Amino acid sequence: MVLPALAFFTFFGAVPLVGVVILSMTDWPGFGALRGAGLSNWSSILQSSVMWHSLMLTFLVMGLTIVIQTPLALLLGVFTAGHQRYRAFLAVLYFLPLLLSAAAISAAYKALLDPNFGLAAGLGVPWLKQNWLGDPTLALGVVLFALAWQYIPFHTLIYQGGVRQIPRSLYEAASIDGAGTVRQFINITLPQLKYTIITSVTLMVVGSLTAFDLIYVLTGGGPGDSTRILALDMYKRGFQANQMGPASVVATILVVLGLCLALLLQRLGGKDASASQQEGL
Amino acid sequence: MTTITSRGRGRGRHHVNLPAGIAGWVWLAVIVLPLYWILITSFKPQASYFTSNPLIPPTQPTFDNYRLVIENDFDRYFVNSVIVTVCAVIPAVLLSFMAAFAIVRGNSRFLRFSSRFLLLGLAIPLQATIIPLYLIIIRLHLYDTLLALILPSIAFSIPLSVLVLANFLRDVPNELFESMRLDGTSEWGTVWRLAFPLTRPAIATVLIYQGLVVWNGFLLPLVLTQSPNLRLLPLAIWSFQGQYSVNIPAVLAAVCLTTLPILVLYVIGRRQLVSGLSAGFGK
User: Fold this and answer.
1) Measuring CA to CA, which of A31, A40, B250, B262 is 20 to 30 A from B139?
2) Is the pLDDT of residue A276 over 60?
3) Which of B129, B218, B258 has the CB atom closest to A17's CB atom?
4) What are the domain boundaries of chain B?
5) Quick one: CA torsion of B4, B5, B8, B12, rounded to 10 degrees?
6) Is the pLDDT of residue A251 over 90?
C-alpha cells in the first residue's frame, strides 16, 4: 500500500533530485536535445562573481531572517499561548497573513510602496516617499520586512504550540520560589523550547534557500542584482537566459546547502531530536 | 501589609503583563494596517484614489475594480486553481494515508526503508529540482497542461502528509485492529472502515494545509505552463499587476478576490486550519 505514494515521490521528487546533478553536466537550452558538457558548467559557475554574490546574499538574508524573525515569533508565541480572551482574539488576526499567497503579498506591497501611486503619495509623509524598490539597500530591507510579515505568523504558530506543551507545574514551582515573569521566561520557557527553536530555525534556513515567489514578484532580483538570492539566480539562468546546465549547478548547490544545514541543525539539537525525528516515521 | 504583597504577587501570577499587552497591540497594527489598506483601497474608484486620504474608507464604495478583475478572466483562473488544488490534494492525501497505514502497521525492512526515503523529502528544498522536473514534464508531453501542475504537486505533498498521518495513526490502539482482524475483516476493509474514520481529524488537517500550499503555489505554474488561459490565481495576480500596475485599486481588488475563498475557509474552520498549519512542526 506504500507503493503508489512511493512511486509518485520517486518519479517527481527523487528522480529530479538525481537529475539536477546530471543536468549540471550537460548543455541544454530548455528545448531540443541535451549535450554532455563535462564539468565546464561547474568551472564557469564557480568562477561567476554573480553566483558568489547570490550565495553571500542568500546567507545574509538567511542570517537576518533568523535574527529578525526568531525573537519576534518566540515572544509572540509565548504571548498568544496565554489563555486571556484578548490574546485569543489577537491571535486570530495575527494569523491572517498565512492565508495570502506570496504573489498576493508582493503585489500588495509593491502597490503600497510605489513612490508615485502608493501610500506615501496619498499620506504626504516625506519620509515614506522614497524609491523603496529602486534603491539596492532599501529594496533588500523591503524584502526582509515582507518576508517577516509573511512568515512570522507561521513561526508564531509553531512557538504557540511549543509553549502550550510545557508542563504548567514547572511554572507553578517557579512562582512559589518567587521567580518573576522574566526569570520564568529565561529559566523555563527558553530551555523547554529548545527543540521548537531548532525546528523553527531549520524551516527558516530551508525557507530562505527557496524564498522565490515573494522576491521574484516584489523585485525580480533587482534593482541590479541586489536581491538576487540563489533561488533567483537559478531561475534567471535557467528560464530567462536559457542555460539549464549552469542553472542546474546552482540548483545542486542549493540542494547540498539545504541538506548540510538541515543536518547540522539536527545535530545541534543533540541525540534526542534526531531520535524523535526517526520516531516520527 | 502581608495581604498587599500577597495580592500583588497573585496578580503577577494571573498575567496582567502590561508591556506584553502593549507590544501585542503594536504588532496587531503591523499586521492589520496593510490588510486594512488593501481592503478599503480595493473599493475606491481609481479617480478618487489619488485625492482621498489612503487610510480613510471610501465615501462611495465601488465594485468597479472587482468587475475589471473578473472581466480579465479571473473566473477562469479561479476554476483552474480549484481543479488543480482538488485534483492534487485529494489523491495526495489518499495515497499518503495508505502509505502511512502500511508504515505504521507493518514492520518489514522495505517499509522502514520507504519511510526513511520519504522523510528525505522533508529535508530537501524540492523547488530546487524544478529544472529536471521541467525536462520530465516536457518529455511526457504534459507541458502547458493542468496535469503538469497536478502530478508534481501530489508528489511534493506526500512526505509531510505521510509524516503527520503516521504520527496520528500510531496512537490508534492496537486492540481495535486486532478485533477487526478476529472478526475476519480484510486488511483493505480495516483501512477504510476503521483507520480512515478514526484518522479523520488528521486527514482534515493535512487536506487543508496541502490545499493552501497548492492554492498559493507560484513556481510550478510559472515554469510548467505558458498559455494565459491555464493560469492559476497567484500567477494571474502577477501578470495582472504587470498589465495594470498604475491601477492600484484594481490590483488590490485582485489580491482580495484571490484570498476570499481561503478567508471563508478560515472563518468556517479556523481551528482545523491553524492546527493544520502547525501539524508536524509544532512539536
Assistant:
1) A40
2) no
3) B129
4) 2-41, 65-278
5) -160
6) yes
CB atoms within 10 A of CB A9: 27
Q: Are A104 and B255 in contact (CB under 8 A)?
A: yes
pLDDT for residue A216 is more than 90: yes
Mean of pLDDT over chain A: 85
CA dist B196 and B205 (Å) reads 14
Residue B232 binned pLDDT confidence (cut-offs 50, 70, 90): very high
Mean predicted confidence (pLDDT) in A22-36? 85
- pLDDT at res. A278: 35
Cell numbers that stand for A236 in this block: 534567471
B62 pLDDT band (50/70/90 cuts)?
A: confident
pLDDT band at B16; cut points 50, 70, 90: low
Q: ipTM of this model?
A: 0.85
Any idea where the domains of chain A sit in the sequence? 22-27+36-97+131-271
B12: chain A residues, CB-CB within 8 Å: 175, 180-181
Q: pLDDT value at position A236? A: 92
Nearest in space to A244 (alpha carbons), one of A60, A33, A56:
A33
Q: Which CATH class is domain B65-278?
A: mainly alpha
A254: CB partners within 8 A, 6+ apart: A209, A210, A230, A231, A234, B125, B128
| Residues paired with residue A36 on neighbouring β-strands, in sequence order | A26
Name residue, grid cell 496619498.
A122
User: What does the buried/exposed string (b/e) look like for A228-239 if buried means 16 or more CB atoms within 10 Å of the residue's CB?
Assistant: bbbbbbbbbbbb
Q: Facing residues of A27 across strands?
A: A35
Segment among A149-153, B89-93, B181-185 with least mean pLDDT: B181-185
Closest to B248 (Cβ–Cβ): which among A30, A111, A258?
A111
A129 shares contact with chain B (CB less than 8 Å): no
What Rg value do the Cα atoms of chain A yield, rounded? 22
Q: How many residues does chain A have?
A: 281
Contact B248 A118 (CB under 8 A): yes
Residue B15 pLDDT: 56
- Cα B114 to Cα A170: distance, rounded to the nearest angstrom: 40
The confidence score (pLDDT) of residue B2 equals 36
Phi, psi of B65 (to 5 degrees): -65, -40
Q: State whether the Cα torsion A118-A124-A125-A131 is positive or negative.
A: positive
The class of domain A22-27+36-97+131-271 in CATH terms is mainly alpha
Q: Which amino acid type is present at position A101? A: S
